[in-house]
Design goal:
With 224 residues, the protein is α/β, with parallel strands linked by helices. It has a single domain, classed as 3-Layer(aba) Sandwich (Rossmann fold). 36% of the residues lie in helices and 27% in strands. The protein has 9 helices and 10 strands. The protein has a 7-stranded mixed beta sheet, sandwiched between helices. Strands 1-8-9 form a 3-stranded mixed beta sheet, with helices on one face. A hairpin with a 2-residue loop joins strand 8 (206-208) and strand 9. Helix 7 crosses helix 9. The mean pLDDT is 94. Bound molecules: S-adenosylmethionine (SAM). Residues 20-23, 35, 39, 43, 61-64, 84-87, 90, 113-114, 130-132, 135 line the site of S-adenosylmethionine (SAM).
């Protein structure tokens, strides 16, 4: 059966789009929980494509409520994770959901924007970001900011749904910048990434406002 999205909240598309971009308050928390269902496959697949290596320090941009961080940290020994999101509500939720990981110093969460990351140059072995690209305010500059905080040879993974997929959704008419994989490859290349490649992974059907959609996750990687 198709996964359902927005069958309970019944928010108008503009309002839903606003909370997908920056979840806020009680409604934002509900949207965060809905995203854990509708984005489960793309989120878990993004971590598989990232293939973390023992002792890596990983940065995630826009982790939402960080529900899947535990799955990432189980993928190799002694990983450390930093999650950055510009939604105070999501940082609060992620900190609650991942209290044990924070207490044992394997996970950290910070409120910040991709535009100006509060980290030194060459801080992370890899960076992952899922379903945030649509909202990057200055895509080339933002990709360069990711490049800055990556270590030499570090990997960036950007996971998203394609323009043709997003065009099926009414909500994506409100403030979403949409991309096909060749646009994202060009963007990463212009920002200075090397060895760029893309994988596509089909997902189960998603039911949204009574309609069933065929969706797939797109995973574009680049190396510093
Ligand atoms: C659509 S949600 C995706 C959440 C999760 N990654 C997923 O795929 O389910 C987008 C998340 O990115 C965050 N975000 C959007 N723009 C951002 C920016 N400029 N800097 C940091 N976080 C941002 C939002 O606050 C939100 O939590």
């Amino acid at each position: 059966m198709a996964e359902k999205f927005n069958s309970d909240t019944k928010l108008a598309p503009e309002e839903l789009a606003k909370h997908l971009r920056q979840p806020d308050g009680e409604t934002g928390k509900q949207i965060g929980l809905l995203m854990n269902k509708s984005n489960k496959h793309i989120c878990l697949n993004s971590y598989k494509v990232l293939t973390p290596q023992k002792e890596d320090h990983i940065l995630e941009i826009g982790m939402g409520n960080g529900f899947f961080v535990k799955d990432l940290l189980n993928m190799a020994d002694n990983l450390t994770y930093t999650g950055v999101d510009f939604s105070a509500t999501m940082v609060q939720e992620a900190s609650l959901f991942n209290k044990k990981l924070i207490d044992n110093k394997s996970a950290f969460f910070k409120e910040a924007s991709i535009e100006n990351l509060p980290f030194d140059d060459h801080s992370f072995d890899s960076i992952t970001t899922t379903n945030t690209l649509y909202f990057w305010p200055q895509p080339i500059n933002n990709a360069k900011e990711l490049l800055r905080v990556l270590k030499p040879n570090g990997k960036l993974l950007v996971a998203y749904r394609s323009k043709s997929c997003m065009d099926q959704l009414e909500l994506a008419k409100h403030g979403f910048q949409k991309y096909e994989s060749h646009d994202v490859e060009g963007l990463l290349s212009n920002a200075g990434f090397k060895n760029i490649s893309t994988q596509i992974i089909k997902e189960p059907e998603l039911e949204f406002d009574g309609k069933v959609f065929q969706i797939e996750g797109i995973f574009t990687t680049g190396i510093k």
